[in-house]
Amino acid sequence: MSATPLYIREVKVRHLRCHDEVVWQCESGMNLIVGANGSGKTTLLEAVYLMAFGRSFRQARDPFLVKRDSDRFFIHGQWQRYGPMNLSVAGRKGKTTLRLQGRDVQRRKDVSESFPVLVEAPQGRKIIDGASGERRRWLDGLIITCFQNIATYYERYLRAVMQRGRLLRRRVSSDELEVWEQQIVHYGMPIVQAREKMITELNQLLIEEVGLTEHPLMISMTMPEYNQQNWLLRLQEKRSEDLRVGLRYGPHCDVVNIHFQQREIRSAGSRGQQKLAAIAIKMAECAIWSRYRRLIPVLLLDDCLEALDRTRQQRLFNRLQNCPAQILMTAPEGVEIASDLNIRIQLLDTQGLCDSATGSKVSMQEDTTVVMEEAA
Ligand SMILES: Nc1ncnc2c1ncn2[C@@H]1O[C@H](COP(=O)(O)OP(=O)(O)OP(=O)(O)O)[C@@H](O)[C@H]1O
């Protein structure tokens, strides 16, 4: 069974950051917004992300989303997911409310899993330049999305780790501790196995991205060789050490690295290499979503040409052209885009968006405001 591409037909934004009212109509393939610094390009990608996650990718609780001197913002999107779907977001004072098909969303996870959106943005590139815990969280997010039961195992594993810590402090009997130590191993083992499987698959996909990155990227996990018996033994033998310093052994401590030419890309990669690596990882992630969830996510690439020379810009566009996902991206004014590329380019200025090919503008209809406010 082939995967279905998710895409957005239209985004309407009102009172979000610098925007008064903007309507953005998108194609199912590549879409590029070009504009001056500070014109609000990233904000439009942020609007798409807000619909899927209810929060920004720049900062989890952003107090500046509402336009200065306004009291709330609205976003309304027409999506295509098997059939047409409407998603809207209203926000005020750091709080957001999501609505799907006009109904309040109770569990945000349901929306982010049904409307997958992957973002690569200079403000939020934690996979490459963040701490190890960021990469671990990213990897675990992916295994939770793809493999059944992992979320439950994760929850139970962490509960067992905490409970053992509490009991160690209360100096309870060895038997009591052993119950929780067995649980740690029981729930920890499938997490380790799922991570190993996911890393193998991601690395195979990253080899296919070598045309983009020049040298293959490699994701690796620095961890002990887990084995049920040794793990349990280790937990039993190191109780007093764990009581002093906490449990520093297990999937919650393992380190995820991304290597490029045998070195860690976060310290050894150039800015351009890091940019391409981050996009290649999004491509691999996209393929994993198609494989396991049969849905092709929408890709948001902010400042997509950042730090890339002309050859690499061309290489990136050639790669994106062959990607089955809808791609929404931004670039600053002055970029030159080859005319043979099948890409919808829209220029953003204080008057809103204007199609670069036809020069036509799209403005918000009177009734839209009402619909958006009602949706919110
Ligand atoms: N709450 C707010 N009210 C009004 N304006 C805001 C608010 N928050 C941010 N801004 C302004 O909105 C704009 C947001 O810009 P955004 O980051 O979307 O621009 P951009 O076109 O992506 O810029 P760049 O090319 O520099 O990355 C900036 O000019 C910023 O100063």
Automatic annotation (TrEMBL):
Domain RecF/RecN/SMC N-terminal: 7-331
Keywords: ATP-binding, Cytoplasm, DNA damage, DNA repair, DNA replication, DNA-binding, Nucleotide-binding, SOS response
Single biological process term from Gene Ontology: double-strand break repair
Cited Pfam families: SMC_N
Residue sites binding ATP per the record: 35-42
Annotated family: Belongs to the RecF family.
Function: The RecF protein is involved in DNA metabolism; it is required for DNA replication and normal SOS inducibility. RecF binds preferentially to single-stranded, linear DNA. It also seems to bind ATP.
GO MF terms, alphabetically ordered: ATP binding; single-stranded DNA binding
Coiled coil: none
Keyword DNA damage: yes
GO cellular component assignments: cytoplasm
Compartments (UniProt record): Cytoplasm
Gene from which the chain derives: recF
Lineage top rank: taxon: Bacteria
InterPro entries: DNA-binding_RecF, P-loop_NTPase, RecF/RecN/SMC_N, RecF_2
Protein name (Swiss-Prot/TrEMBL): DNA replication and repair protein RecF
